[in-house]
What we know:
Blueprint: H1 3-9, E1 20-24, E2 27-37, H2 46-55, E3 63-68, E4 77-84, E5 99-105, H3 108-124, E6 134-145, H4 151-158, E7 165-171, E8 180-186, E9 189-194, E10 197-201, E11 203-208, H5 213-225, H6 227-244, E12 248-252, E13 258-261, E14 265-269, E15 272-276, H7 283-290, E16 298-299, H8 301-311, E17 322-327, E18 332-336, E19 340-344, E20 347-356, H9 362-380
Antiparallel strand pairs: 1-2, 1-7, 2-4, 3-4, 3-17, 5-6, 6-16, 6-20, 7-8, 8-19, 9-10, 9-18, 10-15, 11-14, 12-15, 13-14, 17-18, 19-20
Helix pairs in contact: 2-7, 3-9
InterPro entries: ADC_synthase (IPR005801), Chorismate_C (IPR015890), IsoChor_synthase (IPR004561)
Keywords: Isomerase
Catalytic activity: chorismate = isochorismate
Amino acid sequence: MSATRALDARDPNGDVASLFRLHAPDRRLATDGIRTRLPAGPAATLGERVATFFATPRSGPELLVGALPFDPHQDDALYQPERFSTPGTGSLPTTLGPLFAAAELPPAADYADAVARCIAVLRDAPAGEDALRKVVLARGLRVEAAAPIDPHVLAVKLGSDASVTTYVVPLPVAPGEAPAWLVGATPELLVSRRGRAVVSHPLAGSARRVGNEAEDRRRTDALLASDKDLHEHRFVVEAILDGLAPLCSQLQAPPRPSLHATATMWHLATRITGTLKTDDISSAMLAGVLHPTPAVCGTPRLPALQAIRDLEPFDRGFYAGAVGWTDASGDGDWYVAIRCARVQGHAMHLFAGAGIVADSQPALEVDETAAKFMALRNALGIDDARAA
Ligand SMILES: C=C(O[C@H]1C=CC=C(C(=O)O)[C@@H]1O)C(=O)O
């Protein structure tokens, strides 16, 4: 069965473009239809816009789902779905059809140059609180298919790694354009809120997982002992603690990170937990405050955003943004939108980034981003990881 026919078969109303899916290890959410869009805006006003939305009596699910773009000043894309749907995979085809990696954006050598320039800037940065200390630089890979790519087939394939949260989020497109989605398998929880309980599980500092016990042990021992990776990680934990502290009556994080494994990567991870001071702090507001963390942007945030604009030859769009949901009570889950691709028609753009600090090495960051492509490449059946 072709991918196109599969879409048709699951879409008697022509509404496949609006299927949303978020499958976490402990919770599954799927919706379809777009009933009302939340007026779009920047991350700083997200909490307020969501509060106004739910303060207005309306029919339909008391739920907003969607995505925040990487750049917190750009418009987000949240909406109230028509209905909850039961995610079924029975009728899906198991293959995506012939695919080929068409282009690296930028080529690996240019990415290494950008990392080297970034390291030079970080080394020259004056000492002090406001100095640039970390920048996350990403690169892309364009993949093409013979037929339109079914984002839900890709998500099902990504879901074979039980340690990640897979997602398919419909993205806004210009009138007349083919539907587009962000599809991925993220290991990173930006923030979750249930009542007053808040959890964040940031990752930063990585090693490729090779599947050989002795070699993986060597890599994880090195990762846990690496000053460079511990620094990279500490910036993220500190930014999240700084963001949450004014909103929480209590907040805790272990002093050192632990290991978090996906099928293809090892990461340094810290589980941060807290209790909100008041009931009116929604998960959307928390996501708006915390995003983008130094796991995807850098430290301090604004100079890091500027460095990314200067050094990356593409607009990230919703890659390295956040995907998730919030309900009328303020509860919700927001995940960091990494290990993903923007899927549209016959093409998809894969993205992978790595945190750069003063003692990073360009060749190792090329390899780390190549390793981060593997979750999607494995799902797509495209090998040759190290080249791109
Ligand atoms: C920015 C990405 O990963 C982040 C999350 C985990 C580890 C990271 C790192 O070690 O650099 C990154 O901060 C990505 O996968 O595109």
